[in-house]
## 1
Amino acid sequence: RELRQIIQWKVWHNPVHERDETKDPASLKRCFDFLHLTSRSFTAVILELHPELLVPVALFYLALRGLDTVEDDMTLSLDTKEPILRNFHDILEEDGWNFDGNGPNEKDRQLLVEFNVVVEEFKKIKPAYKAIIKDITKRMGNGMADYVKNAEFNVNGVDTVADYELYCHYVAGLVGEGCTRLFVEGGLANAALLSRPELMESMGQMLQQVNIIRDIKEDHDDGRRFWPKEIWSKHVDKFEDLFKPENKELALNTSTEMILNALNRADDCLYYLAGLREQSVFNFCAIPQSMAIATLDVCFQNHDIFKKNVKITKGSACQLMTESSQNLQLVCEVFRRHTRKIHHKNNPHDPNFLKISITCGRIEQFIESIF
Ligand code: RWZ
Protein backbone atom coordinates (compact mmCIF):
# COMPACT_ATOMS: atom_id res chain seq x y z
CA ARG A 1 0.00 0.00 0.00
CA GLU A 2 2.88 2.31 0.80
CA LEU A 3 4.40 1.60 -2.60
CA ARG A 4 1.13 2.44 -4.34
CA GLN A 5 1.22 5.83 -2.68
CA ILE A 6 4.77 6.38 -3.82
CA ILE A 7 4.21 5.50 -7.45
CA GLN A 8 0.98 7.42 -7.83
CA TRP A 9 2.23 10.45 -5.97
CA LYS A 10 1.83 13.44 -8.15
CA VAL A 11 2.55 17.08 -7.73
CA TRP A 12 -0.46 18.53 -9.41
CA HIS A 13 1.14 21.69 -10.47
CA ASN A 14 4.78 22.17 -11.28
CA PRO A 15 5.74 25.24 -9.27
CA VAL A 16 7.43 27.89 -11.37
CA HIS A 17 10.27 29.28 -9.32
CA GLU A 18 10.64 32.93 -10.29
CA ARG A 19 14.13 34.28 -9.90
CA ASP A 20 14.89 38.00 -9.95
CA GLU A 21 17.88 37.87 -12.24
CA THR A 22 18.30 41.65 -12.11
CA LYS A 23 19.71 41.10 -8.60
CA ASP A 24 22.37 38.69 -9.85
CA PRO A 25 25.94 39.97 -9.68
CA ALA A 26 27.97 39.90 -12.90
CA SER A 27 29.90 36.80 -11.78
CA LEU A 28 26.70 34.77 -11.29
CA LYS A 29 25.39 35.90 -14.69
CA ARG A 30 28.65 34.73 -16.21
CA CYS A 31 28.33 31.34 -14.47
CA PHE A 32 24.90 30.87 -16.05
CA ASP A 33 26.33 31.91 -19.44
CA PHE A 34 28.84 29.09 -19.07
CA LEU A 35 26.14 26.66 -18.04
CA HIS A 36 24.33 27.44 -21.30
CA LEU A 37 27.53 27.11 -23.31
CA THR A 38 28.71 23.81 -21.81
CA SER A 39 25.65 21.64 -21.50
CA ARG A 40 22.86 21.65 -23.98
CA SER A 41 20.45 19.17 -22.45
CA PHE A 42 21.47 19.46 -18.81
CA THR A 43 21.00 23.23 -18.55
CA ALA A 44 17.24 22.97 -19.01
CA VAL A 45 16.75 20.59 -16.06
CA ILE A 46 19.22 22.48 -13.83
CA LEU A 47 17.43 25.80 -14.45
CA GLU A 48 14.12 24.32 -13.28
CA LEU A 49 15.58 23.18 -9.95
CA HIS A 50 14.16 24.39 -6.64
CA PRO A 51 15.76 27.79 -5.78
CA GLU A 52 17.42 26.30 -2.70
CA LEU A 53 19.58 24.09 -4.91
CA LEU A 54 19.72 25.91 -8.25
CA VAL A 55 22.97 27.81 -7.69
CA PRO A 56 24.77 25.05 -5.70
CA VAL A 57 23.99 22.45 -8.39
CA ALA A 58 24.92 24.86 -11.20
CA LEU A 59 28.29 25.56 -9.53
CA PHE A 60 28.77 21.83 -8.84
CA TYR A 61 28.20 21.22 -12.54
CA LEU A 62 30.66 23.93 -13.60
CA ALA A 63 33.32 22.71 -11.15
CA LEU A 64 33.14 19.17 -12.53
CA ARG A 65 32.94 20.43 -16.10
CA GLY A 66 36.16 22.33 -15.39
CA LEU A 67 37.83 19.14 -14.17
CA ASP A 68 36.54 17.27 -17.22
CA THR A 69 38.01 19.94 -19.54
CA VAL A 70 41.45 19.41 -18.01
CA GLU A 71 41.23 15.60 -18.10
CA ASP A 72 39.92 15.50 -21.67
CA ASP A 73 42.49 17.78 -23.33
CA MET A 74 44.95 15.63 -25.29
CA THR A 75 47.20 18.68 -25.87
CA LEU A 76 48.03 18.97 -22.14
CA SER A 77 50.97 17.03 -20.70
CA LEU A 78 50.57 14.78 -17.68
CA ASP A 79 52.83 17.13 -15.71
CA THR A 80 50.39 19.98 -16.31
CA LYS A 81 47.23 17.92 -15.79
CA GLU A 82 48.05 15.98 -12.67
CA PRO A 83 48.50 18.82 -10.14
CA ILE A 84 45.40 20.64 -11.43
CA LEU A 85 43.24 17.50 -11.21
CA ARG A 86 44.50 16.58 -7.74
CA ASN A 87 44.16 20.11 -6.31
CA PHE A 88 40.95 21.19 -7.98
CA HIS A 89 39.01 21.10 -4.67
CA ASP A 90 41.37 23.79 -3.31
CA ILE A 91 41.30 25.69 -6.61
CA LEU A 92 37.55 26.12 -5.98
CA GLU A 93 38.50 28.43 -3.09
CA GLU A 94 41.52 30.12 -4.67
CA ASP A 95 40.57 33.74 -5.33
CA GLY A 96 41.06 34.78 -8.95
CA TRP A 97 42.18 31.34 -10.20
CA ASN A 98 41.96 30.74 -13.92
CA PHE A 99 43.76 28.71 -16.58
CA ASP A 100 44.46 29.45 -20.23
CA GLY A 101 46.59 26.41 -21.00
CA ASN A 102 43.88 24.41 -22.81
CA GLY A 103 44.24 23.83 -26.54
CA PRO A 104 42.35 26.28 -28.77
CA ASN A 105 39.92 23.56 -29.89
CA GLU A 106 38.86 22.53 -26.41
CA LYS A 107 35.10 23.13 -26.32
CA ASP A 108 34.92 24.52 -22.78
CA ARG A 109 38.26 26.30 -22.80
CA GLN A 110 36.68 29.67 -21.93
CA LEU A 111 35.16 28.30 -18.68
CA LEU A 112 38.68 27.76 -17.32
CA VAL A 113 39.94 31.06 -18.76
CA GLU A 114 37.31 32.83 -16.62
CA PHE A 115 37.08 30.28 -13.81
CA ASN A 116 37.47 33.08 -11.23
CA VAL A 117 33.72 33.77 -11.61
CA VAL A 118 32.95 30.24 -10.37
CA VAL A 119 35.34 30.73 -7.42
CA GLU A 120 33.66 34.06 -6.64
CA GLU A 121 30.17 32.51 -6.49
CA PHE A 122 31.37 29.36 -4.71
CA LYS A 123 32.33 31.56 -1.72
CA LYS A 124 28.71 32.62 -1.27
CA ILE A 125 26.92 29.29 -0.99
CA LYS A 126 26.14 27.53 2.31
CA PRO A 127 29.15 25.87 3.97
CA ALA A 128 27.36 22.48 4.00
CA TYR A 129 26.93 22.62 0.20
CA LYS A 130 30.55 23.76 -0.25
CA ALA A 131 31.81 20.81 1.80
CA ILE A 132 29.87 18.30 -0.35
CA ILE A 133 31.05 19.86 -3.63
CA LYS A 134 34.66 20.00 -2.42
CA ASP A 135 34.61 16.39 -1.24
CA ILE A 136 33.30 15.07 -4.56
CA THR A 137 35.66 17.32 -6.57
CA LYS A 138 38.62 16.03 -4.56
CA ARG A 139 37.72 12.37 -5.07
CA MET A 140 36.84 12.81 -8.76
CA GLY A 141 40.00 14.81 -9.50
CA ASN A 142 42.21 12.20 -7.86
CA GLY A 143 40.40 9.37 -9.64
CA MET A 144 40.84 11.15 -12.98
CA ALA A 145 44.54 11.76 -12.26
CA ASP A 146 45.05 8.05 -11.50
CA TYR A 147 43.23 7.13 -14.71
CA VAL A 148 45.18 9.61 -16.88
CA LYS A 149 48.48 8.39 -15.41
CA ASN A 150 47.59 4.77 -16.06
CA ALA A 151 46.37 5.57 -19.58
CA GLU A 152 49.82 6.94 -20.41
CA PHE A 153 51.32 3.48 -19.97
CA ASN A 154 48.36 1.53 -21.26
CA VAL A 155 47.66 2.81 -24.78
CA ASN A 156 45.05 0.08 -25.21
CA GLY A 157 42.64 1.91 -22.98
CA VAL A 158 40.54 0.23 -20.33
CA ASP A 159 41.26 -3.43 -19.59
CA THR A 160 38.63 -5.10 -17.45
CA VAL A 161 34.94 -4.41 -16.83
CA ALA A 162 35.93 -3.58 -13.23
CA ASP A 163 38.37 -0.90 -14.51
CA TYR A 164 35.66 0.47 -16.80
CA GLU A 165 33.14 0.70 -13.96
CA LEU A 166 35.76 2.27 -11.69
CA TYR A 167 36.35 4.99 -14.31
CA CYS A 168 32.58 5.51 -14.58
CA HIS A 169 32.44 5.67 -10.77
CA TYR A 170 34.89 8.57 -10.72
CA VAL A 171 33.33 10.61 -13.52
CA ALA A 172 29.64 9.83 -12.88
CA GLY A 173 28.94 7.60 -9.86
CA LEU A 174 30.42 10.33 -7.65
CA VAL A 175 28.11 12.87 -9.35
CA GLY A 176 25.20 10.70 -8.20
CA GLU A 177 26.53 10.71 -4.65
CA GLY A 178 27.14 14.48 -4.66
CA CYS A 179 23.70 15.30 -6.04
CA THR A 180 22.01 12.97 -3.55
CA ARG A 181 23.84 14.56 -0.62
CA LEU A 182 22.88 18.04 -1.89
CA PHE A 183 19.21 17.01 -2.23
CA VAL A 184 19.16 15.57 1.30
CA GLU A 185 21.04 18.55 2.78
CA GLY A 186 18.52 20.87 1.08
CA GLY A 187 15.65 18.86 2.57
CA LEU A 188 14.42 17.83 -0.88
CA ALA A 189 15.04 14.07 -0.78
CA ASN A 190 14.60 11.20 1.63
CA ALA A 191 17.76 10.72 3.73
CA ALA A 192 17.20 6.95 3.39
CA LEU A 193 18.66 7.25 -0.14
CA LEU A 194 22.07 7.78 1.48
CA SER A 195 21.96 4.35 3.09
CA ARG A 196 21.62 2.66 -0.32
CA PRO A 197 24.85 3.83 -2.03
CA GLU A 198 24.48 1.30 -4.86
CA LEU A 199 21.34 3.12 -6.05
CA MET A 200 23.00 6.54 -6.52
CA GLU A 201 26.01 4.80 -8.05
CA SER A 202 23.72 3.16 -10.62
CA MET A 203 22.16 6.53 -11.50
CA GLY A 204 25.60 7.82 -12.54
CA GLN A 205 26.82 4.55 -14.07
CA MET A 206 23.74 4.30 -16.29
CA LEU A 207 24.20 7.83 -17.73
CA GLN A 208 27.95 7.52 -18.20
CA GLN A 209 27.85 4.03 -19.73
CA VAL A 210 25.17 5.12 -22.20
CA ASN A 211 27.37 8.08 -23.24
CA ILE A 212 30.37 5.77 -23.71
CA ILE A 213 28.31 3.35 -25.82
CA ARG A 214 26.80 6.11 -27.98
CA ASP A 215 30.10 7.99 -28.45
CA ILE A 216 32.17 4.99 -29.57
CA LYS A 217 32.90 6.46 -33.02
CA GLU A 218 33.65 10.00 -31.84
CA ASP A 219 35.90 8.79 -29.00
CA HIS A 220 37.75 6.45 -31.35
CA ASP A 221 38.35 9.29 -33.83
CA ASP A 222 39.73 11.41 -30.97
CA GLY A 223 42.05 8.64 -29.77
CA ARG A 224 40.07 7.68 -26.64
CA ARG A 225 39.05 4.13 -25.84
CA PHE A 226 36.57 3.38 -23.05
CA TRP A 227 35.04 0.05 -24.12
CA PRO A 228 36.88 -2.50 -21.96
CA LYS A 229 39.14 -5.07 -23.63
CA GLU A 230 37.51 -7.79 -21.49
CA ILE A 231 34.33 -7.26 -23.57
CA TRP A 232 35.56 -6.46 -27.11
CA SER A 233 38.27 -9.15 -27.09
CA LYS A 234 35.55 -11.83 -26.87
CA HIS A 235 34.33 -10.73 -30.28
CA VAL A 236 37.22 -9.19 -32.27
CA ASP A 237 41.04 -9.47 -32.18
CA LYS A 238 41.87 -5.79 -32.38
CA PHE A 239 39.81 -2.81 -31.21
CA GLU A 240 40.05 -1.22 -34.69
CA ASP A 241 38.31 -4.30 -36.14
CA LEU A 242 35.05 -3.06 -34.61
CA PHE A 243 34.92 -0.33 -37.25
CA LYS A 244 35.52 -2.54 -40.32
CA PRO A 245 32.37 -3.08 -42.40
CA GLU A 246 33.15 -6.80 -42.84
CA ASN A 247 32.94 -7.23 -39.03
CA LYS A 248 29.44 -5.82 -38.77
CA GLU A 249 27.97 -8.78 -36.87
CA LEU A 250 30.91 -9.06 -34.44
CA ALA A 251 30.73 -5.33 -33.76
CA LEU A 252 27.00 -5.57 -33.08
CA ASN A 253 27.59 -8.46 -30.68
CA THR A 254 30.15 -6.35 -28.83
CA SER A 255 27.76 -3.41 -28.61
CA THR A 256 24.90 -5.52 -27.29
CA GLU A 257 27.17 -6.84 -24.51
CA MET A 258 28.01 -3.21 -23.59
CA ILE A 259 24.29 -2.32 -23.65
CA LEU A 260 23.46 -5.36 -21.50
CA ASN A 261 25.93 -4.12 -18.87
CA ALA A 262 24.26 -0.68 -18.76
CA LEU A 263 20.73 -2.11 -18.86
CA ASN A 264 21.45 -4.08 -15.68
CA ARG A 265 21.37 -0.72 -13.82
CA ALA A 266 17.83 0.18 -14.93
CA ASP A 267 15.90 -1.29 -11.98
CA ASP A 268 18.20 0.42 -9.46
CA CYS A 269 17.49 3.74 -11.20
CA LEU A 270 13.72 3.29 -10.92
CA TYR A 271 14.15 2.34 -7.26
CA TYR A 272 16.20 5.51 -6.66
CA LEU A 273 13.57 7.68 -8.38
CA ALA A 274 10.95 6.20 -6.04
CA GLY A 275 12.84 7.83 -3.15
CA LEU A 276 12.40 11.39 -4.45
CA ARG A 277 9.60 13.60 -3.17
CA GLU A 278 10.19 17.03 -4.66
CA GLN A 279 9.02 17.66 -8.22
CA SER A 280 11.99 19.67 -9.54
CA VAL A 281 14.48 17.17 -8.10
CA PHE A 282 12.45 14.30 -9.54
CA ASN A 283 12.52 15.90 -13.01
CA PHE A 284 16.24 16.67 -12.73
CA CYS A 285 16.93 12.97 -12.10
CA ALA A 286 14.21 11.33 -14.20
CA ILE A 287 14.63 13.21 -17.49
CA PRO A 288 18.27 12.19 -18.10
CA GLN A 289 17.45 8.57 -17.16
CA SER A 290 14.58 8.45 -19.64
CA MET A 291 16.86 9.89 -22.32
CA ALA A 292 19.45 7.26 -21.39
CA ILE A 293 17.14 4.26 -21.80
CA ALA A 294 15.78 5.70 -25.05
CA THR A 295 19.38 6.09 -26.26
CA LEU A 296 20.15 2.45 -25.37
CA ASP A 297 17.11 1.51 -27.44
CA VAL A 298 18.24 3.44 -30.57
CA CYS A 299 21.78 2.08 -30.21
CA PHE A 300 20.66 -1.54 -29.75
CA GLN A 301 21.32 -3.63 -32.89
CA ASN A 302 22.18 -0.40 -34.71
CA HIS A 303 25.44 -0.62 -36.64
CA ASP A 304 25.39 3.13 -37.33
CA ILE A 305 27.01 3.77 -33.91
CA PHE A 306 30.30 2.58 -35.46
CA LYS A 307 29.93 5.02 -38.36
CA LYS A 308 28.40 8.18 -36.93
CA ASN A 309 26.93 9.86 -33.86
CA VAL A 310 23.52 8.26 -33.21
CA LYS A 311 20.97 10.38 -31.37
CA ILE A 312 17.34 10.13 -30.38
CA THR A 313 15.15 12.43 -32.50
CA LYS A 314 14.13 15.89 -31.27
CA GLY A 315 10.53 14.70 -31.28
CA SER A 316 11.10 11.75 -28.98
CA ALA A 317 13.34 13.88 -26.75
CA CYS A 318 10.44 16.34 -26.31
CA GLN A 319 7.98 13.53 -25.60
CA LEU A 320 10.37 12.04 -23.03
CA MET A 321 10.78 15.41 -21.29
CA THR A 322 7.02 15.80 -20.87
CA GLU A 323 6.41 12.21 -19.76
CA SER A 324 9.32 12.16 -17.33
CA SER A 325 8.43 15.43 -15.61
CA GLN A 326 5.27 13.95 -14.12
CA ASN A 327 5.60 10.92 -11.86
CA LEU A 328 7.20 7.54 -11.38
CA GLN A 329 4.38 5.74 -13.15
CA LEU A 330 5.03 7.58 -16.42
CA VAL A 331 8.81 7.10 -16.11
CA CYS A 332 8.21 3.38 -15.58
CA GLU A 333 6.11 3.37 -18.73
CA VAL A 334 8.99 4.97 -20.66
CA PHE A 335 11.36 2.33 -19.28
CA ARG A 336 8.95 -0.50 -20.09
CA ARG A 337 8.38 0.75 -23.65
CA HIS A 338 12.12 0.87 -24.43
CA THR A 339 12.90 -2.37 -22.60
CA ARG A 340 10.24 -4.14 -24.68
CA LYS A 341 11.62 -2.64 -27.91
CA ILE A 342 15.09 -3.87 -26.99
CA HIS A 343 13.64 -7.28 -26.10
CA HIS A 344 11.96 -7.51 -29.53
CA LYS A 345 15.17 -6.58 -31.37
CA ASN A 346 17.18 -9.19 -29.44
CA ASN A 347 18.83 -11.55 -31.96
CA PRO A 348 18.88 -15.33 -31.23
CA HIS A 349 22.31 -15.56 -32.91
CA ASP A 350 23.77 -13.03 -30.45
CA PRO A 351 25.99 -14.83 -27.88
CA ASN A 352 24.28 -12.75 -25.17
CA PHE A 353 20.75 -13.45 -26.41
CA LEU A 354 19.75 -15.32 -23.26
CA LYS A 355 21.29 -12.84 -20.81
CA ILE A 356 19.67 -9.89 -22.61
CA SER A 357 16.34 -11.67 -22.61
CA ILE A 358 16.63 -12.37 -18.87
CA THR A 359 17.60 -8.76 -18.07
CA CYS A 360 14.72 -7.33 -20.12
CA GLY A 361 12.35 -9.78 -18.44
CA ARG A 362 13.63 -8.79 -15.01
CA ILE A 363 13.12 -5.05 -15.68
CA GLU A 364 9.61 -5.63 -17.04
CA GLN A 365 8.81 -7.80 -14.02
CA PHE A 366 10.21 -5.21 -11.63
CA ILE A 367 7.98 -2.54 -13.19
CA GLU A 368 4.93 -4.79 -13.04
CA SER A 369 5.65 -5.66 -9.40
CA ILE A 370 5.38 -2.04 -8.28
CA PHE A 371 2.02 -1.42 -9.99
C1 RWZ B 1 24.93 17.01 -13.19
C2 RWZ B 1 25.71 18.39 -11.26
C3 RWZ B 1 30.20 17.36 -16.36
C4 RWZ B 1 27.35 17.44 -12.79
C5 RWZ B 1 31.13 15.67 -14.84
C6 RWZ B 1 27.87 16.72 -13.99
C7 RWZ B 1 32.20 15.31 -15.78
C8 RWZ B 1 32.37 13.39 -17.31
C9 RWZ B 1 31.02 13.41 -17.96
C10 RWZ B 1 29.31 17.08 -13.97
C11 RWZ B 1 25.41 12.93 -17.23
C12 RWZ B 1 27.40 12.82 -18.75
C13 RWZ B 1 26.98 14.88 -17.39
C14 RWZ B 1 27.34 11.43 -16.67
C15 RWZ B 1 26.93 13.46 -15.31
N1 RWZ B 1 32.28 13.91 -15.96
N2 RWZ B 1 30.04 12.71 -17.21
C16 RWZ B 1 26.06 17.60 -12.44
C17 RWZ B 1 30.21 16.63 -15.09
C18 RWZ B 1 26.49 12.00 -17.81
C19 RWZ B 1 26.10 14.08 -16.43
C20 RWZ B 1 28.03 13.95 -17.98
C21 RWZ B 1 27.99 12.57 -15.90
C22 RWZ B 1 28.88 13.41 -16.81
Note: Residues 42, 57, 60-61, 64-65, 68, 171-172, 175, 179, 207-208, 211, 288 surround RWZ (CB under 6 Å).
## 2
Amino acid sequence: MPQPWDYIAKVVNIGDSGCGKSSLTIRLCEGRFNPAHDVTIGVEFGSRIIPVSPDKKIKLQIWDTAGQESFRAITKSYFRGATGALLVYDITRRETFDHVKTWLEELRGAADKDISIILVGNKCDLAEEGKRAVTKEEAQEWARENGLKAAVETSAKTGEAVEQAFVDCAKEIWKNIESGVY
Ligand code: GDP
Ligand code: MG
Protein backbone atom coordinates (compact mmCIF):
# COMPACT_ATOMS: atom_id res chain seq x y z
CA MET A 1 0.00 0.00 0.00
CA PRO A 2 1.35 3.48 -0.79
CA GLN A 3 2.18 5.83 2.07
CA PRO A 4 -0.72 8.16 2.90
CA TRP A 5 1.63 11.19 2.67
CA ASP A 6 4.25 12.50 0.25
CA TYR A 7 6.57 14.25 2.69
CA ILE A 8 7.17 14.47 6.45
CA ALA A 9 7.88 17.96 7.79
CA LYS A 10 9.09 18.95 11.22
CA VAL A 11 7.31 22.03 12.55
CA VAL A 12 8.37 23.65 15.83
CA ASN A 13 6.22 25.76 18.15
CA ILE A 14 7.92 28.70 19.75
CA GLY A 15 6.89 31.64 21.93
CA ASP A 16 6.36 32.63 25.56
CA SER A 17 4.94 30.20 28.10
CA GLY A 18 1.15 30.30 28.43
CA CYS A 19 0.39 31.58 24.91
CA GLY A 20 -1.30 28.32 23.95
CA LYS A 21 1.36 26.45 21.99
CA SER A 22 0.42 23.10 23.51
CA SER A 23 -3.28 23.90 23.19
CA LEU A 24 -2.90 24.64 19.46
CA THR A 25 -1.15 21.31 18.92
CA ILE A 26 -3.79 19.42 20.89
CA ARG A 27 -6.57 21.22 19.00
CA LEU A 28 -5.05 20.36 15.61
CA CYS A 29 -4.07 16.78 16.38
CA GLU A 30 -6.81 15.67 18.76
CA GLY A 31 -9.63 18.15 18.12
CA ARG A 32 -10.09 19.07 21.77
CA PHE A 33 -9.29 21.86 24.25
CA ASN A 34 -7.91 21.51 27.78
CA PRO A 35 -8.41 24.58 29.99
CA ALA A 36 -5.67 23.47 32.40
CA HIS A 37 -2.10 24.69 31.90
CA ASP A 38 -0.05 21.51 32.05
CA VAL A 39 3.62 22.35 32.28
CA THR A 40 5.76 19.30 31.84
CA ILE A 41 9.46 19.15 31.23
CA GLY A 42 10.74 17.97 27.89
CA VAL A 43 9.47 18.10 24.33
CA GLU A 44 6.10 16.80 23.21
CA PHE A 45 4.84 15.85 19.80
CA GLY A 46 1.73 15.81 17.70
CA SER A 47 1.17 14.89 14.08
CA ARG A 48 -1.43 15.47 11.40
CA ILE A 49 -1.63 14.81 7.68
CA ILE A 50 -2.45 18.01 5.72
CA PRO A 51 -3.39 18.14 2.02
CA VAL A 52 -1.33 20.82 0.25
CA SER A 53 -2.63 20.28 -3.29
CA PRO A 54 -5.34 18.06 -4.85
CA ASP A 55 -2.99 15.06 -4.91
CA LYS A 56 -0.24 15.80 -2.39
CA LYS A 57 -0.19 15.48 1.38
CA ILE A 58 2.34 16.49 4.01
CA LYS A 59 2.58 14.84 7.39
CA LEU A 60 3.35 17.58 9.92
CA GLN A 61 5.31 16.43 12.92
CA ILE A 62 4.73 19.16 15.45
CA TRP A 63 7.31 19.66 18.17
CA ASP A 64 6.10 21.43 21.25
CA THR A 65 8.27 22.94 23.95
CA ALA A 66 7.00 21.86 27.31
CA GLY A 67 7.99 24.13 30.17
CA GLN A 68 11.40 25.05 28.79
CA GLU A 69 10.45 28.37 27.25
CA SER A 70 10.72 30.42 30.44
CA PHE A 71 14.26 29.24 31.02
CA ARG A 72 15.49 29.81 27.48
CA ALA A 73 16.64 26.24 27.69
CA ILE A 74 15.62 25.25 24.18
CA THR A 75 18.59 23.56 22.61
CA LYS A 76 19.70 23.54 18.98
CA SER A 77 18.41 20.00 18.60
CA TYR A 78 14.88 21.31 19.04
CA PHE A 79 15.25 23.32 15.80
CA ARG A 80 17.39 20.85 13.87
CA GLY A 81 15.77 19.76 10.62
CA ALA A 82 12.68 21.94 11.14
CA THR A 83 11.16 23.19 7.89
CA GLY A 84 8.33 25.13 9.54
CA ALA A 85 7.62 27.09 12.72
CA LEU A 86 4.68 28.64 14.49
CA LEU A 87 5.75 31.79 16.31
CA VAL A 88 3.03 32.18 18.93
CA TYR A 89 1.95 35.11 21.11
CA ASP A 90 -1.18 35.77 23.17
CA ILE A 91 -3.31 38.64 21.82
CA THR A 92 -4.35 39.51 25.40
CA ARG A 93 -0.79 39.87 26.76
CA ARG A 94 1.22 42.65 25.18
CA GLU A 95 4.56 41.39 26.48
CA THR A 96 4.19 38.09 24.62
CA PHE A 97 4.00 40.06 21.35
CA ASP A 98 6.98 42.22 22.38
CA HIS A 99 8.93 38.98 22.87
CA VAL A 100 8.27 37.51 19.40
CA LYS A 101 11.20 39.60 18.15
CA THR A 102 13.58 37.79 20.51
CA TRP A 103 12.05 34.42 19.64
CA LEU A 104 12.48 35.15 15.95
CA GLU A 105 16.17 35.97 16.45
CA GLU A 106 16.57 32.73 18.38
CA LEU A 107 14.79 30.79 15.65
CA ARG A 108 16.70 32.40 12.78
CA GLY A 109 19.97 31.81 14.64
CA ALA A 110 19.32 28.11 15.17
CA ALA A 111 17.11 26.90 12.33
CA ASP A 112 17.59 26.45 8.60
CA LYS A 113 17.38 29.79 6.79
CA ASP A 114 14.53 28.64 4.56
CA ILE A 115 12.24 27.72 7.45
CA SER A 116 8.60 28.76 6.83
CA ILE A 117 7.49 30.86 9.79
CA ILE A 118 3.86 31.74 10.55
CA LEU A 119 3.04 34.38 13.18
CA VAL A 120 0.15 33.16 15.34
CA GLY A 121 -1.84 35.45 17.65
CA ASN A 122 -3.70 33.01 19.85
CA LYS A 123 -6.70 33.42 22.23
CA CYS A 124 -8.66 35.56 19.74
CA ASP A 125 -11.85 34.32 21.45
CA LEU A 126 -10.98 36.71 24.31
CA ALA A 127 -11.07 39.79 22.02
CA GLU A 128 -14.86 39.85 22.40
CA GLU A 129 -14.43 40.28 26.14
CA GLY A 130 -12.39 43.46 25.59
CA LYS A 131 -9.11 41.75 26.46
CA ARG A 132 -7.27 42.46 23.21
CA ALA A 133 -3.83 44.05 23.75
CA VAL A 134 -2.38 43.62 20.23
CA THR A 135 -4.18 44.64 17.03
CA LYS A 136 -4.39 42.41 13.98
CA GLU A 137 -2.98 45.20 11.83
CA GLU A 138 0.23 45.72 13.81
CA ALA A 139 0.85 41.96 13.90
CA GLN A 140 0.40 41.75 10.14
CA GLU A 141 2.70 44.70 9.58
CA TRP A 142 5.36 43.24 11.88
CA ALA A 143 5.14 39.88 10.09
CA ARG A 144 5.56 41.57 6.71
CA GLU A 145 8.48 43.69 7.85
CA ASN A 146 10.25 40.64 9.22
CA GLY A 147 9.74 38.41 6.21
CA LEU A 148 7.29 35.97 7.79
CA LYS A 149 5.02 34.03 5.45
CA ALA A 150 1.71 34.85 7.13
CA ALA A 151 0.04 36.20 10.27
CA VAL A 152 -3.03 34.45 11.62
CA GLU A 153 -5.22 34.93 14.69
CA THR A 154 -6.40 31.70 16.25
CA SER A 155 -8.36 30.31 19.16
CA ALA A 156 -7.33 26.92 20.44
CA LYS A 157 -10.42 27.15 22.63
CA THR A 158 -13.02 27.49 19.84
CA GLY A 159 -10.81 26.01 17.11
CA GLU A 160 -10.99 29.19 14.99
CA ALA A 161 -8.29 29.32 12.29
CA VAL A 162 -6.11 26.71 14.05
CA GLU A 163 -6.19 24.47 11.01
CA GLN A 164 -5.54 27.49 8.77
CA ALA A 165 -2.36 28.37 10.67
CA PHE A 166 -0.91 24.89 10.21
CA VAL A 167 -2.20 24.62 6.61
CA ASP A 168 -0.52 27.96 5.75
CA CYS A 169 2.69 26.58 7.19
CA ALA A 170 2.35 23.27 5.32
CA LYS A 171 1.69 25.06 2.02
CA GLU A 172 4.78 27.24 2.42
CA ILE A 173 6.85 24.15 3.16
CA TRP A 174 5.42 22.49 0.06
CA LYS A 175 6.34 25.53 -2.07
CA ASN A 176 9.93 25.16 -0.86
CA ILE A 177 9.92 21.44 -1.67
CA GLU A 178 8.55 22.03 -5.17
CA SER A 179 11.09 24.74 -5.88
CA GLY A 180 13.89 22.42 -4.76
CA VAL A 181 14.91 24.28 -1.60
CA TYR A 182 14.97 21.00 0.42
P1 GDP B 1 1.85 27.02 26.28
O1 GDP B 1 2.60 27.25 27.55
O2 GDP B 1 2.21 28.02 25.23
O3 GDP B 1 1.96 25.62 25.77
O4 GDP B 1 0.29 27.30 26.60
P2 GDP B 1 -0.86 26.25 26.94
O5 GDP B 1 -1.33 25.55 25.70
O6 GDP B 1 -0.46 25.40 28.07
O7 GDP B 1 -2.03 27.27 27.36
C1 GDP B 1 -1.90 28.13 28.46
C2 GDP B 1 -3.26 28.46 29.04
O8 GDP B 1 -4.02 29.23 28.11
C3 GDP B 1 -4.11 27.23 29.36
O9 GDP B 1 -4.83 27.46 30.54
C4 GDP B 1 -5.03 27.13 28.17
O10 GDP B 1 -6.23 26.49 28.49
C5 GDP B 1 -5.25 28.58 27.80
N1 GDP B 1 -5.51 28.76 26.37
C6 GDP B 1 -4.78 28.25 25.35
N2 GDP B 1 -5.29 28.61 24.16
C7 GDP B 1 -6.37 29.39 24.43
C8 GDP B 1 -7.32 30.07 23.62
O11 GDP B 1 -7.29 30.06 22.39
N3 GDP B 1 -8.30 30.78 24.27
C9 GDP B 1 -8.39 30.84 25.63
N4 GDP B 1 -9.38 31.55 26.15
N5 GDP B 1 -7.50 30.20 26.43
C10 GDP B 1 -6.51 29.49 25.84
MG1 MG C 1 3.12 24.05 26.49
Note: The radius of gyration is 15 Å.
